[in-house]
Specification:
single chain; 391 residues; alpha/beta; FAD/NAD(P)-binding domain; D-Amino Acid Oxidase, Chain A, domain 2; 7-stranded mixed β-sheet; 12 helices
Length: 391
């Protein structure tokens, strides 16, 4: 069996993107996927910020819909509506896009090895063992991009914390959806998770939720939500999906000797929403730069530049989002309703429309602090904790 400069474990979008970067530089890259096919089953909502066009290769064939705004719903029914003039997010055909990114890595020189389940990793030597294969694969660097239940991560981290997610693809008999708006519903039963409606078209949507409840409890909440909404009265559920979302862990070890972690395996997800594609693509670039330098210089210790660059890029943003997540976790539905009313009265819709960003939320929070709006909706101690992040 071939040996490689770099073994990438997991051919998801982040692992495939990293593999392409390294193959483009002429390194011998093995892209190993435990499944028989890339991109299946769908395990995400497929909504991604417009920054993706600056961070990775994507053509219009993978974009099912474009979204300009969002309706944010309180438990009582109060709604905050925010929007931009141009699309802020895209609804993707993730299964096709994931497959495309893996194929792009192969076109640039990576070797895709399907049905290769990694069952042994040695971060010191770079050796990995594949199920049902007699010999080890020796690599100069191992990259764990194998999701929130990462085998590679498990070699030097405790099991990752995760939350359950459930999602339905729903078709309506007529055009009843605003196809350029998503809907988000907060509910203390699943906080800091939420329910989403992501339109694929004006008559089809991905409707789902995530939270710390069990899958059975989540589907019960989701079924009740659909039953109460009149526009879904004659809707049909075409497909059902479920999966796990990693919980961001600031203590996660992302580098050990010759092994580094990327994407969900590194818990590189937004603490507030669990989304991680944009962050994962950015981190793939950061990791590729550090890995290329380490291999060209023949000095594996230079991989540590990955840790430093990642922290510099995301440390403050992630700390701020952790505080926001903690606040939502602590609030009852009554408190959530009061918060929405104060946001409405404080002209938050205009502020969110102007400063809101799916992937970088600190500019909006900073503006809410500056305007005094955050002081009006949160207890002083919580506001001080957030404001201290900028000191």
């Amino acid at each position: 069996m071939n040996n490689y400069d770099i073994a990438v474990v997991g051919a998801g979008p982040v692992g495939s993107t990293f593999a392409r970067y390294m193959a483009e530089e002429g390194f011998k890259v093995g892209l190993m996927e435990r499944k028989r096919a890339v991109g299946v089953p769908l395990q995400c909502a497929g909504l991604v910020g417009k920054k993706i066009k600056k961070l990775n290769v994507i053509s219009d064939e993978f974009i099912l819909n474009r979204v300009c705004g969002a309706h944010l719903h309180a438990p009582s029914g109060e709604v905050l509506s925010v929007a931009k003039k141009k699309p802020e997010a895209y609804v993707l055909d993730r299964m096709s896009y994931d497959k495309f990114l893996a194929e792009l890595a192969v076109e640039n020189g990576a070797e895709l090895l399907l049905n290769h389940k990694v069952v042994g990793v040695d971060p010191k030597t770079g050796n990995i063992r594949i199920k049902n294969h007699e010999t080890n694969i020796c690599n100069r660097v191992i990259v764990g991009a194998d999701g929130c239940s990462s085998f590679v991560s498990g070699e030097f981290n405790p099991p990752s914390k995760t939350v359950q997610a459930a999602q339905y693809l729903v078709n309506m008999e007529s055009s009843v959806l605003e196809s350029d708006y998503v809907h988000l519903y907060v509910d203390s039963r699943i906080s800091p998770g939420f329910i989403w409606i992501i339109p694929v078209s004006d008559s089809a949507a991905r409707i789902g939720l995530f939270g710390s409840a069990s899958y059975r409890e989540l589907t019960g909440i989701l079924n009740g939500f659909l039953a109460r909404d009149e526009k879904f009265k004659n809707a049909s559920v075409v497909k059902k999906y479920h999966g796990l979302i990693p919980v961001y862990d600031p203590k996660k070890v992302i580098l050990k000797d010759r092994a580094l972690l990327l994407g969900d395996a590194a818990s590189q997800v937004k603490p507030t929403t669990g989304g991680g594609l944009i962050m994962g693509f950015k981190c793939a670039r950061i990791a590729a730069a550090a890995t290329s330098n380490a291999l060209h210089e023949g000095d594996i210790s230079l991989l540590h530049n990955y840790e430093g660059s990642y922290a510099k890029e995301y440390k403050r943003e992630l700390r701020m989002q952790i505080e926001v997540r903690k606040i939502f976790e602590s609030m009852s539905n009554v408190e959530l309703d009061k918060m929405f009313l104060k946001l409405k009265e404080g002209n938050a819709e205009a502020m969110i429309s102007k400063y809101g960003d799916m992937d970088t939320q600190s500019p909006l929070i900073k503006q809410m602090l500056k305007s005094g709006l955050l002081f009006s909706i949160l207890p002083g101690i919580l506001t001080r904790r957030i404001s201290n992040l900028w000191k």
